[in-house]
Specification:
The complex is a heterodimer of chains A (about 325) and B (about 350). Chain A is an alpha/beta fold. Chain A is about 40% helix and about 10% strand. Chain A contains eleven helices and eight strands. Chain A has helices at about 5-30, 55-60, 80-85, 90-95, 130-140, 160-170, 190-195, 220-235, 265-270, 275-285, 290-315; strands spanning about 70-75, 120, 150-155, 175-180, 185, 190, 210-215, 240-245. In chain A, the strands form two sheets. In chain A, strands 2-1-3-4-8-7 form a six-stranded parallel beta sheet, with helices on both faces. Chain A has a two-stranded antiparallel ribbon with strand order 5-6. In chain A, strand 7 (about 210-215), helix 8 and strand 8 form a beta-alpha-beta unit. The N and C termini of chain A lie far apart (about 45 Å). In chain A, about 50% of the residues are buried. By secondary structure, chain B is of the alpha/beta class. Helix content of chain B is about 35%, strand content about 20%. In chain B, the strands form three sheets. In chain B, strands 3-2-4-5-7-6-12 form a seven-stranded mixed beta sheet, sandwiched between helices. In chain B, strand 2, helix 2 and strand 3 (about 60-65) form a beta-alpha-beta unit. Chain B starts with 11 loop residues before the first strand and ends with a helix. The chains are: A alpha/beta (about 325), B alpha/beta (about 350). The interface of A and B includes residues 101, 106 and 141 of A.
Chain lengths: ~325, ~350
């Protein structure tokens, strides 16, 4: 399954948008956190998990989804939220904890909920799979269309929730796709030190579903694999497990010294940054020229800057609003 | 509409039957209601509370799940967020250890983390309680554990009338509700059935308001506060005390979240004496919470409040030890005598 020219430009644009957002967050996050790093300080306090390098996973999958389809993402959710079409202003405002944020600042960057596009995420490893399966169980029971995608990291494949949900989805033949973003690191522990199989897509056979592997953080490769899996789900032929070899260009979270990485790894990953590579591919394919690229990048950056301004100019809710929305 | 426990009805039901009837009635009128859990299908639930549902509604709406609580409770959260009203069963509350993340990190928090935009209208029903030598992994109550964590309503019926009304209310609630039913009250003979739980239940649908305690016996000298099976111990104790010339009031909490502190305070303001009876562990639980709720409001008690609760030990197997540890009417009477001697 090959992406159309339009789909390829769309994926590139989403990746550029997400990357610029992450780079801006990176700078803003460090405000007030130097010279002494204190996670509670600055305009964006708390943990921050940047998704730089993992953009192909998000765009290659979400290119096949509509607003009605369900996505449940991880603690590292920004690239996926951007690609799923989460309201960027409300999302960035939520990352800043502002009143105009998706939930008025109650959730923050790990707990983004946008019901308009059926997007949610969670800070707990392995939590995406059950709700994704349940959402499409709901569609089945209601006779409504829609598939679900649960994103997870390669570390989550060692959680009980992963195995329980794969079995449940397979035994009930649910239209759900499980997408593993394999960035090779569970915080500081390398995949081969934590996982008994070299590739998690091999685990699909244990649950009688197709397992697909995408190598080298390949945008069009993700597009093809996801396209097939999502079509299969839409046709009522059950779940698929996909593992994507991706790259975490930043640390696990901001403030991570990354001393655990082998020497030269980070530089090598940066050399293989998927966004310049994809840009080059589009240029070579004649789908983009320098002028069009400049315009596209400028527009994407402007969108991000507008969202950041929106967030910065928004107020916080009064503190006592913390007491609201425990129940509806 | 809220109906009180004194409403008429001649037909008696067990709690198990009352739960199944409430579920069936809601399922007939609301296609978004469905049930999933272990052995809820043709078996009708290990504790009988889904009996007849599979026959009437079929396997599409009464789903037997794999033994995978994390997956199917997580799935219920996803389905509830997508417009359904799932009822899921955690067969024994003691099994929370294998799936608590789905319960307290998702079911209980998604509404708050979405600023109220995501509704999670699901019922988690789960059995509690011991007394039949099933030991410490199948006999706990854990009321305090669930009630402690914000974001979940928690109800604990003591009789079939309340069970039906609370179940109907729980299914209709737009928030997650944990419905904790005590095994000894279910009306399953093999679990040492408490006869007082089987009461007249109207055939028509009705709700019992979540968050409203019930004064099941009025009295002037002492307030006994309890929930679930403990209510029946209190009623027996009240009878013994009546023979001794003391008039005990018995408050059945029915809901732990929201907690009807007002009814408790009003009762203690009248009687001046408080004993809380709880089959859950003594420390950090319902009994402490009730006592704090009263004394922080500066009631002038005639005696220090007391509690009859489960000691802070894992629940032992041997009947000699388990029965010794459980709350009962004699312990309540003794606690009152102790109170008088202060």
């Amino acid at each position: 399954m090959q992406p159309t020219s339009e789909q390829r430009r769309w994926m590139y644009r989403q990746m550029v948008t997400s990357r610029h957002l992450e780079e801006r967050i990176e700078t803003l996050y460090m405000e007030g956190k130097t010279p002494v790093f204190n996670m509670a300080k600055g305009p964006i306090p708390g943990e921050m998990h940047l998704s730089n390098g993992q953009e192909p996973c998000a765009v290659g999958v979400c290119a096949h989804l509509n607003a009605e389809d369900v996505v449940v993402a991880t603690h590292r959710p920004h690239h996926i939220a951007v690609a799923k079409g989460v309201d960027l202003n409300a999302m960035v405002a939520e990352i800043f904890g502002k009143a105009t944020g998706l939930s008025g600042g109650r959730g923050g960057h790990m707990h983004l909920f946008d019901a308009d596009v059926n997007f949610s995420c969670s800070g707990i490893i392995g939590e995406s799979l059950g709700p994704a399966a349940g959402a499409v169980l709901s569609r089945k029971l209601q006779g409504k269309p829609g598939v679900a995608v649960a994103f997870l990291g390669e570390g989550a494949a060692n959680q009980g929730a992963f195995h329980e949900a794969l079995n449940l989805a397979a035994v009930w033949q649910l239209p759900v796709v499980f997408v593993i973003e394999d960035n090779a690191w569970g915080i500081s522990v390398a995949k081969q030190a934590s996982t008994a199989v070299p590739r998690n897509d091999l685990r699909a056979s244990a649950y009688g579903m197709p397992g697909v592997h995408v190598a080298d953080n390949d945008v069009d490769g993700v597009f093809a694999a996801a396209g097939q899996a999502i079509a299969r789900a839409r046709e009522g032929r059950g779940p698929t497990l996909i593992e994507i070899e991706t790259s975490r260009l930043a640390g696990h979270f901001m403030g991570d010294g990354e001393d655990y990485r082998p020497e030269g790894e980070k530089e090598a990953l940066q050399q293989r940054d998927p966004i310049p590579r994809y840009r080059q591919a589009l240029l070579e394919a004649g789908l983009l020229d320098e002028a069009a690229d400049t315009a596209l990048v400028k527009e994407a950056h402007a969108r991000v800057e507008a969202a950041i301004r929106f967030a910065q100019q928004s107020d916080f809710l009064p503190p006592e609003a913390a007491l609201e929305t425990v129940f509806v | 509409m809220t109906t009180t426990s004194t409403a008429s009805g001649t037909r008696k039901l067990t709690i198990a039957r009352a739960m199944a009837e409430a579920t069936a009635q809601e399922m007939r009128t609301d296609p978004s209601v469905f049930v999933m859990g272990e052995d809820v299908g043709p078996l009708g639930g290990v504790f009988g509370n889904t009996r007849g549902l599979h026959e009437e509604f079929g396997p599409e709406r009464i789903l037997d799940t794999p033994i995978s609580e994390t997956a199917f409770i997580g799935a219920a959260v996803g389905a509830a967020s997508d417009g359904m009203r799932p009822i899921v069963e955690l067969m024994f509350v003691d099994f929370l250890g294998v799936c608590f993340d789905a319960i307290y990190n998702m079911m209980a928090k998604n509404t708050y983390f979405s600023g109220g935009k995501v509704r999670v209208p699901m019922v988690l029903m789960t059995s509690t309680g011991g007394g039949y030598s099933d030991a410490g992994q199948h006999s706990q109550c854990l009321y305090g554990t669930f009630a402690h964590l914000p974001g979940m309503k928690v109800v604990v019926p003591s009789n079939a009338y309340d069970a039906k009304g609370l179940m109907t209310a729980a299914i209709r609630d737009d928030n997650p509700v944990v419905f904790m039913y005590h095994k000894a009250l279910q009306g399953m003979g093999w679990l040492g059935t408490e006869k007082g739980a089987t009461v007249p239940v109207p055939e028509e649908s009705y709700t019992v308001e979540i968050g409203r305690a019930s004064v099941v016996r009025e009295g002037q000298d002492l307030t006994l506060v309890s929930l679930g099976a403990g209510v029946h111990h209190c009623l027996r104790a009240a009878k013994t005390l009546a023979d001794e010339g003391f008039d005990a009031e018995v408050v059945d909490l029915r809901s732990l979240v929201p907690l009807d502190r007002e009814t408790v305070r009003a009762s203690v303001a009248k009687t001046g004496r408080l004993i809380v009876v709880d089959e859950d562990y003594h420390s950090y639980g319902v009994s402490g919470e009730i006592i704090a709720s009263v004394v922080e409001h500066d009631h002038r008690l005639k005696a220090a409040p007391a509690r009859v609760a489960y000691p802070d030990i894992p629940i032992p197997f041997a009947p000699t030890m388990e029965q010794w540890a459980l709350p009962n009417a004699d312990k309540i009477v003794a606690a009152f005598h102790q109170m008088l001697s202060q």
